[in-house]
Amino acid sequence: MHKAYFALALFGLLALAQSEGDTGLAEAGSYTPGPLGQITQPLPTPAGEGSVYRVGAYPLYTPELADGPGKDLVQGYCQVCHSTTYITMQPPLPAATWQAEVTKMINTYGAQIPEDAAKAITAYLQAHYTPETRK
Ligand code: HEC
């Protein structure tokens, strides 16, 4: 009879050991607030005597647009919200995509561009920035 009690006790101990393992798992998922709201950064390198601290111009580089009819319209209408780098940084895009881009600027982003100017701009982009025409 006492053999059965012994087995039961052993089983209990095993169960306890098992649950302690589970406790460890539970802790792994509970996060303490820690140093919330603190942003830490490394200390600046101490400047030696005679050090010179120089700040240059921020490197903003907008490539020149291709020359051709409509360039002035692009510069006038398309630079209201962003630089023309948005055009030059694109890979060569199919003519239909440029058409869609101009339409998107007007319909989605609210660019105020008269219809004839929009047509001329689209023609300009298609004449210089498609896989066939881009230099
Ligand atoms: C009313 C503001 C506005 C005007 C004017 C405007 N754009 Fe945009 N353009 C945006 C916004 C907003 C985005 C997308 C947001 C971003 O990526 O910064 C964008 C993104 C672009 C992109 C990146 C590709 C894309 O679809 O997101 C191109 C190319 C572009 N514009 C071309 C043009 C051209 C060409 C014109 C002139 C016809 C023009 N934009 C005029 C607001 C404008």
Automatic annotation (TrEMBL):
<protein>
    <submittedName>
        <fullName>Sulfite dehydrogenase (Cytochrome) subunit SorB</fullName>
        <ecNumber>1.8.2.1</ecNumber>
    </submittedName>
</protein>
<keyword id="KW-0732">Signal</keyword>
<dbReference type="InterPro" id="IPR036909">
    <property type="entry name" value="Cyt_c-like_dom_sf"/>
</dbReference>
<dbReference type="GO" id="GO:0050310">
    <property type="term" value="F:sulfite dehydrogenase activity"/>
</dbReference>
<feature type="signal peptide">
    <location>
        <begin position="1"/>
        <end position="17"/>
    </location>
</feature>
<dbReference type="GO" id="GO:0020037">
    <property type="term" value="F:heme binding"/>
</dbReference>
<keyword id="KW-0560">Oxidoreductase</keyword>
<dbReference type="GO" id="GO:0009055">
    <property type="term" value="F:electron transfer activity"/>
</dbReference>
